[in-house]
Structures are given as structure tokens and as C-alpha cells.
Amino acid sequence: MKRETALLLAPGVLVLTLGFVLPVLRVLTLAFDAKTGFGLDNFARFFADSFYPLVAWRTVRLSLVITLVTALFGAPLALVMARAPRWLRMALIVVVVLPLMTSVVVRTFGWLVILGRGGLLAQTLAYFDLAGRNFSLMHTETGVVLAMVQVLMPFVTLTVLSTLEKIDPRLEEAARVMGANFWTTLRHVVVPLAMPGLVAGSLLVFALSASSFVTPGLIGGVRLPVLGATIYQQVTGTLDWGFAAAQATLLLILALVVALPYAQGARRAGASR
Amino acid sequence: MIGRVPALAAALGVALAAAAAIFMLAPLAVVIASSVSASEFLVFPPRGFSLRWYQEILASSVYLRALGVSLTLAAVVTVISVALGAAAAIGLSRPGVRFAGALQGLFLSPLMLPTILLGIGLLMLASRYANGPSFAVMALGHVVVTLPYVVRTVSAVLARVDPSLEEAARVMGAPWWRRYWHVVLPQARPGLAAGAFFAFNVSFDEAVVALFLRAPGVETLPLLIYSKLEFSPDPSVAAAATLMIAMTVAVMIALDRVLGLDKVAA
Fold first, then answer.
1. What is the pLDDT of residues B161-174, one digit of tens each?
2. Looking at this predicted complex, what is its ipTM?
3. Which domain holds residue B216?
4. For chain A, what is the domain count?
5. Is residue A34 classed as helix, strand or coil in its secondary structure?
6. CA–CA separation, B147 vs B86, rounded Å?
7. Which residues between 38 and 57 in chain A have a beta carbon less than 8 angstroms from any beta carbon of chain B?
8. Residue B28, by phi and psi: left (phi above 0), alpha (psi -120 to 50) or beta?
9. In terms of Cα–Cα distance, which of A29, A19, A23 is closest to A246?
10. Residue B135 exposed, middle or buried by CB count within 10 Å (0-12, 13-18, 19+)
11. B1 pLDDT above the threshold of 50
């Protein structure tokens, strides 16, 4: 490696070491910090009663639902974008990218106005006589899922879109020329080839949703705590950093443990078609 | 030519596109609509039309200070992030980089790992080795979060340029600073501009790292909105949030100009 190349890379590596690698290592070491030096005290406390395991279970369950819903709607949306006429494609890119680039605080605020008592959703449902005006999805898991799907769907859609763009159009042409209809081609050519993008996008959504706390915190509130929210609470409220670090470590492990079989399963499903 | 799309598939596609547009844009639309309400309270649909809440926030020292902090922070972060990220992307584009894969992974990993981990870690380090969180620590956190965007956009642009131009400059004896100023940087320019707009937007909007590193005097606009949402928001929050949406729209238009939104997205 030339000296010039090393000089170009060094400042970035230095800043990332200081501002990223060391902080993450600090969290991991603090998690195993115990009175006796190195120990699992913080983790033992997590499993001491059912409160935190239930919080972890809610986090996993909500993240899985959010990941499935985003994949179910986000991936077909990418397909529409890839095949739509230019104007519609551009319009849909704005529809996906504008919310993605808007602060998560602002988007959550929008959902508070929609989901709250007397909010847009309650009024719409009341108009069709489907619910009373006091109807509210605040402090419900449904409300959290709705808002989180809107926050995270762009990640799936854009990852799948970029995979679809790389598919050689001749593969589809070949299938059609040989007599396969639209749906058969979709099932046996397009979907399997798009699968890596769907897997990558879904993993990203799962990791992001398991660790998020701004949206679940403001919409779910204290009655529906998720891991991100209890970590935030411990770091800023009770200042119990060792315990917070242990929870963050568990969050990381959780994301990895759920991610690996999911990735393998999805890859196998893609390959067998 | 790929064969015809059946009517059912086309209809499903249009329905999905329409539903996605409503679902994705509704939260932004209600914020904008609430901001022009004449009412004292945050109600939907808004009652009457007035710009009084904009007058209010533009006369409020709390909002103006937060806006000032956010703009300064985003500007500082953009300059540092573009300088570091561009250098790294140029370095990574050179042949024969040792550990190229690992380095690439390092530069993109802040996008993949939960930001909450970064926030806690920085807070713990800052409390131990500095005097707790400060503007500088928050800027460091935001540089880490924005760096992947710069590295990615600059790398994407450099992948399409002709490396023989730089080689020609080198062979003809141009000193290193002329080579960078007249060849390498102009070649990377669309990527630099797009990376800068991304970095600015991400830092201006960022709330997770900021919530952990919040310090007295370093309250950004997203932090201010967040704390108002925790209690009882009035339409002034909607006005501030609308200004943030306007900033995002401006950045998107700029991104479309320099690189094309199409390329930025996919």
C-alpha cells in the first residue's frame, strides 16, 4: 500500500476508532463489569425477575411483526417502482425518500396527531361509524407497529429496488419468450433474484426496530416499554450505566441471534424456487 | 421487450402505489396542516388558518437558539465528515489497498450497528475522560453517523471515473496538490456535493445520539421538539417541525440537482 493511500485513509480510521470502535468496546466491557472485576452480575439482574425478559420478548415480537409487514408491502412497492413509467417512479421515489430523510422526531409527531384521541384516524373511523371519537391507538402495540412501519419501510423498498435494477432484463425476456406468463415469471425469475435484497433490507429493519426508542417511547409510552426505552431510561434517569450497557449488549446479541437463522432461511427459500 | 403486464397486476400496482403515498406522507401532511391552525391547541383538522405559530417560534429565543445550535452543528459536522469521508473514499478507490474489505466495512459499519450503542458508549467515554458531553462530543458522534453516507456517495462516483486522467497528471510531473485540485477532486465533485447534503441533513435531523449526549446549551431542534412531545405539544411544535420538513425538501431538491434522486435512492 502506497504512503499516499495510507495518508488518505488514516484520518478517517483514527476518528472512527475514537468515536465508534472505542465507545462500542466501552459498552461491551462495562456490561461485564462487576464488583469482583469481571462478572455477569448485570446480566443476572436482567433475568432476576420477569420484568426485563418480558420487555425483551416484547421488543423481539414487535420487531418481527414490523419486519414482516415492511417486507410484505415494501418489497412489492419496489417492484412497482422498478416497472412503473418514469413519472410514477420519480413520484414514488419522493414518497419513499422524503419521509426517510425527515427527522424521526417529526414523523413520530405526525403519528401522535393521527393516532391520538380525536386524531385523524379516530375521526375517519367515526365518520364511517366504525368507532367512537374517543378511539385511540396511542399506548397500543398496533399504534407502535403502524408508526414504525412508516419509519422503516423505506429501508426495505430501497434495498429491494437496487437489487431489482441489477437483474438482467434478458432473463425475464427469456422466460416470457419461452411461454411463461407474467405471474410465473415473477415467481420463478424475479422473486428469487430479488431475494438477497429482501433479506438484507429485512435484517436492517429488524436491527433498527429492535434498537429504536424514540417512536416506541413516544407512542407506546411507559406502559409498553421496549429494550431501547429501558436503556434510555437507565442511562439518563437512574444513571445505572453498567445495567444499561448489559441491556445494550443483549440487544446486540438478540439482533444477531434472530438475524442469522432468518438470513439462512430466506436464502434457502430463495434458492429452492 | 418484456411481455405485457396483465391488467390485474397493473391495477394492484397502482393501488399499492396510491396506498403507499397516503401512508408514507400522511404523518408529514398532518404536521404541516397543524402548523397553520388558528387554535390554541393541537387539533386535527386545524381550526381556521393563521401563521401566528410561525410568528411565535421566530420570536422565541428558545426555538431560535435551538435552530442556531442545529445549524452550527450540522455545518461543522458536514465540513469534517466530507473532508474525512472524501479522503477515505479516494484512498479506498486506489489499487492495492491492504485490508480493503475490512476498511470498507469499518467505514460503513456505523450504518449497520444500532445507533443507541454508539450514543451510550460516547456518553460513557465522555463522562470518564472528558468533562461529560459537550458540543464537541456531539459533533464527533454525528461525524461517525454521517461518515458512511459521504464514503458511499463519493465511492459510487469515483467508481465511474477514468483513473488514467490522474495517472496522466502524475506522469507529466504535476505536484500532488495540483493532481488533487485539478483532477481528483473535480472528478469526485458530484459525490462530494451529494455526500455533503446527506451529512448536513442527517446531522440536522439526528435525535438518537443527540438524546444521549444532550448537554446544557447544546439543545438541538430535534431535541427541543422531542422534549415538547413528551409533555403537551402546542401548534408551535408543528411550526418548528414544518420548518424541518422544509429543510429536508430543500436538501432533496439539491440532491436531485447534483446527482439525480434516482441514483441517490437506488
1. 998 998 899 899 89
2. 0.91
3. 60-265
4. 1
5. strand
6. 9
7. none
8. alpha
9. A29
10. middle
11. no
Domain that holds residue A55: 49-272
Interface check for A171 against chain B (CB to CB < 8 A): the answer is: no
Residues B28, A107: C-beta atoms closer than 8 Å? yes
Question: A interface mutation test: which of B32, B117, B158, B223 has the most A CBs within 10 A?
Answer: B117
Is residue B43 included in any domain, yes or no? no
**Per residue in A23-81, pLDDT tens?**
999 999 999 988 777 889 999 999 998 999 999 999 999 999 999 999 999 999 999 99
The pLDDT of residue B235 is: 86
Residue-averaged pLDDT of chain B: 91
Q: B-chain residues within 8 Å CB-CB of A27?
A: 117, 120-121, 124
A67-106 in b/e burial notation, b at 16+ Cβ within 10 A? bebbbebbbbbbbbbbbbeeeebbebbbbbbbbbbbbbbb
CA distance A229 to B115: 13
The gap from C-alpha B109 to its chain's centroid, in whole angstroms, comes to 16
CATH number of the domain that residue A202 is part of: 1.10.3720.10
Task: Tell if the CB–CB gap between A12 and B23 is shorter than 8 Å.
Answer: no
Tell me the pLDDT tens digit for each residue of A127-172.
888 887 778 888 999 999 999 999 999 999 999 999 999 988 888 8
Residue where the block lists cell 390554541: B40
